[in-house]
């Protein structure tokens, strides 16, 4: 039986990054993945294909609605869904084979098949062709990720009732896409199909977007998305869906108890994801789980109740984000090599890739109020920014929240073009414990979108914003 210093189960952004970092630090590493391609949910059916489609649909929207303002006339703008999907598949194939290359480069042994604990140190790997082999590891990392939550009233059939796995691979634009859950997937994939011509209705249990994130930022985003044609039904329950040929009737109930039927052609169920531990054998060897079914680990240590077994990424508590999984993978690999790995959860950015994009780090106003923290607010609008004007992208705002006494940054909330790239500055600022004044006094190149962040920081520091 082959023996490794570290065995990683699951080759998503948590697992493959942990494997690379452990190998860099001199460990003999194996990685087990049941999919044929590496990269996990994120590269195969998550972050990357969804962003490829968001980018394609943004180009389509631009050609249809925005180029005219720049004095550019294009002929009839058409979409070729097949070609769009082929491009998306090519992007996916390039990034997943990139991970394959990285495994080879770092001399990581790759096993294809389902990994299952047969003891605290032994993992059996069953491949599709029925073969099984067993390997042994001193330390084992569970990085098995997550899968979509399914609920009895909405049984997924992959054709009419679908998850994100299917919604990134439709072969035609639905006439009416009903989305259950106004979370990140609902907003991103809802945006894709709305831009391509679908009527999109999003049914949400809660009264607002983004759960606990900043409420004013959420309602501002909601208004922008409504202008783009997305319809939201908040505080609405879904009782069931009846498939009738190629159509579907969704029974909903509004807050006041009124029941009605929504007629559509597809129902995307995006109500969250659950940790993936099916067939892993974790329970059988005595690994403890949280009440919500995630693997229980010591915070910032990633160690389960069995000392040589660790877990990272979507399968443990915390936000289900690729960069969170990656950072946990790096921190854990460093700890296993005797270094001081650490993840600063306060500095993890959230990004929603609608257009404009939404990105934030830290607390919203409601959370600060609930914690009794006194804070200052600074704001700036993209419409006052010269680069936004040049780009013809006036929608968006930045809100900076800093401590009333110390001015230390507590939360920064951006809605605006390329907020996904701009939020990196804020994540670094949080890592360095920066104040609003630190941002305000740092030179930001002119003319750039990032100047809106600086203006909001000036406003938060002492109301000395120059351009508004
Ligand atoms: P995963 O990426 O889920 O990888 C786990 C891997 O383990 C899988 O490949 C699985 O096949 C394998 N596996 C499971 N069990 C076994 C077993 N027993 N044996 C062998 N292999 C096994 N996050 C972002 O930060 N940004 C985004 O833009 C973003 N967009 C997303 C869009 C969509 C549509 C979805 C669904 C998710 C998105 N996410 C995004 C979330 C992101 O994909 C996850 O947070 C991330 O992939 C988690 O990484 P992970 O390594 O923990 O698990
Ligand atoms: P989510 O947790 O973001 O949102 C689910 C939404 O569904 C919530 O608003 C919830 O209130 C609602 N909901 C739950 N049950 C419901 C019901 N029965 N009826 C109506 N609404 C209901 O989950 P989502 O969108 O499925 O995404 C899963 C995870 O994937 C996200 O939490 C996120 O971590 C990750 N992701 C990240 C992305 C990014 O970083 N840009 C993009 C896509 C996904």
From TrEMBL:
<keyword id="KW-0285">Flavoprotein</keyword>
<comment type="similarity">
    <text>Belongs to the class-I pyridine nucleotide-disulfide oxidoreductase family.</text>
</comment>
<feature type="binding site">
    <location>
        <position position="204"/>
    </location>
    <ligand>
        <name>NAD(+)</name>
    </ligand>
</feature>
<dbReference type="Pfam" id="PF07992">
    <property type="entry name" value="Pyr_redox_2"/>
</dbReference>
<dbReference type="InterPro" id="IPR012999">
    <property type="entry name" value="Pyr_OxRdtase_I_AS"/>
</dbReference>
<feature type="active site" description="Proton acceptor">
    <location>
        <position position="446"/>
    </location>
</feature>
<dbReference type="InterPro" id="IPR006258">
    <property type="entry name" value="Lipoamide_DH"/>
</dbReference>
<feature type="binding site">
    <location>
        <begin position="144"/>
        <end position="146"/>
    </location>
    <ligand>
        <name>FAD</name>
    </ligand>
</feature>
<dbReference type="GO" id="GO:0050660">
    <property type="term" value="F:flavin adenine dinucleotide binding"/>
</dbReference>
<feature type="binding site">
    <location>
        <begin position="320"/>
        <end position="323"/>
    </location>
    <ligand>
        <name>FAD</name>
    </ligand>
</feature>
<keyword id="KW-0274">FAD</keyword>
<feature type="binding site">
    <location>
        <position position="115"/>
    </location>
    <ligand>
        <name>FAD</name>
    </ligand>
</feature>
<feature type="binding site">
    <location>
        <position position="272"/>
    </location>
    <ligand>
        <name>NAD(+)</name>
    </ligand>
</feature>
<dbReference type="Pfam" id="PF02852">
    <property type="entry name" value="Pyr_redox_dim"/>
</dbReference>
<feature type="binding site">
    <location>
        <position position="51"/>
    </location>
    <ligand>
        <name>FAD</name>
    </ligand>
</feature>
<dbReference type="InterPro" id="IPR050151">
    <property type="entry name" value="Class-I_Pyr_Nuc-Dis_Oxidored"/>
</dbReference>
<dbReference type="InterPro" id="IPR016156">
    <property type="entry name" value="FAD/NAD-linked_Rdtase_dimer_sf"/>
</dbReference>
<feature type="disulfide bond" description="Redox-active">
    <location>
        <begin position="42"/>
        <end position="47"/>
    </location>
</feature>
<dbReference type="GO" id="GO:0006103">
    <property type="term" value="P:2-oxoglutarate metabolic process"/>
</dbReference>
<dbReference type="InterPro" id="IPR036188">
    <property type="entry name" value="FAD/NAD-bd_sf"/>
</dbReference>
<keyword id="KW-0560">Oxidoreductase</keyword>
<keyword id="KW-0547">Nucleotide-binding</keyword>
<dbReference type="GO" id="GO:0004148">
    <property type="term" value="F:dihydrolipoyl dehydrogenase (NADH) activity"/>
</dbReference>
<feature type="binding site">
    <location>
        <position position="314"/>
    </location>
    <ligand>
        <name>FAD</name>
    </ligand>
</feature>
<dbReference type="InterPro" id="IPR004099">
    <property type="entry name" value="Pyr_nucl-diS_OxRdtase_dimer"/>
</dbReference>
<protein>
    <recommendedName>
        <fullName>Dihydrolipoyl dehydrogenase</fullName>
        <ecNumber>1.8.1.4</ecNumber>
    </recommendedName>
</protein>
<feature type="binding site">
    <location>
        <begin position="181"/>
        <end position="188"/>
    </location>
    <ligand>
        <name>NAD(+)</name>
    </ligand>
</feature>
<feature type="domain" description="FAD/NAD(P)-binding">
    <location>
        <begin position="4"/>
        <end position="329"/>
    </location>
</feature>
<keyword id="KW-0676">Redox-active center</keyword>
<dbReference type="InterPro" id="IPR001100">
    <property type="entry name" value="Pyr_nuc-diS_OxRdtase"/>
</dbReference>
<dbReference type="InterPro" id="IPR023753">
    <property type="entry name" value="FAD/NAD-binding_dom"/>
</dbReference>
<dbReference type="GO" id="GO:0005737">
    <property type="term" value="C:cytoplasm"/>
</dbReference>
<keyword id="KW-0520">NAD</keyword>
<keyword id="KW-1015">Disulfide bond</keyword>
<feature type="domain" description="Pyridine nucleotide-disulphide oxidoreductase dimerisation">
    <location>
        <begin position="348"/>
        <end position="457"/>
    </location>
</feature>
């Amino acid at each position: 039986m082959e023996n490794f210093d570290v065995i990683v189960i699951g080759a998503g952004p948590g697992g493959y990054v942990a494997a690379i970092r452990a190998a860099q630090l001199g460990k003999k590493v194996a990685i087990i993945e049941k999919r044929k391609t590496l990269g996990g949910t994120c590269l195969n059916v998550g972050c990357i294909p969804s962003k490829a489609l968001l980018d394609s649909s943004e180009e389509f929207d631009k050609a249809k609605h925005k180029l005219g303002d720049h004095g550019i006339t294009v002929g009839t703008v058409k979409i070729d869904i097949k070609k769009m999907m082929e491009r998306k598949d090519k992007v996916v194939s390039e990034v997943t084979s990139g991970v394959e290359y990285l495994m080879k480069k770092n001399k990581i042994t790759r096993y294809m098949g389902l990994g299952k604990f047969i003891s605290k140190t032994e993992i059996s790997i069953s491949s599709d062709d029925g073969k099984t082999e067993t390997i042994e590891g001193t330390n084992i990392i569970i990085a098995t990720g997550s899968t979509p939550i399914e609920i009895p009233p909405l049984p997924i059939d992959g054709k009419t009732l679908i998850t994100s796995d299917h919604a990134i691979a439709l072969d035609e634009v639905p006439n009416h896409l009903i989305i259950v859950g106004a979370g990140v997937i609902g907003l991103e994939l809802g945006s894709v199909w709305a831009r391509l011509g679908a009527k999109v209705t999003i049914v949400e249990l809660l009264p607002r977007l983004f759960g606990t994130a900043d409420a004013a930022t959420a309602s501002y985003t909601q208004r922008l998305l409504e202008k783009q044609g997305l319809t939201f039904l908040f505080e609405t329950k879904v009782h069931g869906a009846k498939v009738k040929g190629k159509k579907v009737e969704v029974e909903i109930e509004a807050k006041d108890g009124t029941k009605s039927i929504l007629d559509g052609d597809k129902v995307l169920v995006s109500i969250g994801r659950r940790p993936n531990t099916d067939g892993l054998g974790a329970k059988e060897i005595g690994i403890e789980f949280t009440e919500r079914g995630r693997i229980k680990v010591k915070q910032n240590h990633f160690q389960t109740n069995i000392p040589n077994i660790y877990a990272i990424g979507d399968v443990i508590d915390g936000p289900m984000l690729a960069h969170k999984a990656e950072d946990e993978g790096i921190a854990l690999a460093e700890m296993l090599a005797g270094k001081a790995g650490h993840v600063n959860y306060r500095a993890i950015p959230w990004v929603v890739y609608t257009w404009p994009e939404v990105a934030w780090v830290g607390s919203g106003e409601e959370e600060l109020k609930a914690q009794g923290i006194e804070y200052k607010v600074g704001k700036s609008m993209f419409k006052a920014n010269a680069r936004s004007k040049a780009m013809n992208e006036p929608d968006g705002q930045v809100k900076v929240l800093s401590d009333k006494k110390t001015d230390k940054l507590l939360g920064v909330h951006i809605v605006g073009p390329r907020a996904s790239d701009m939020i990196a500055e804020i994540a670094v600022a949080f890592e360095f414990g920066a104040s609003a004044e630190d941002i305000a006094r740092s030179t930001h190149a002119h003319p750039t979108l990032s100047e809106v962040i600086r203006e909001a920081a000036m406003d938060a520091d002492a109301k000395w914003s120059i351009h508004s």
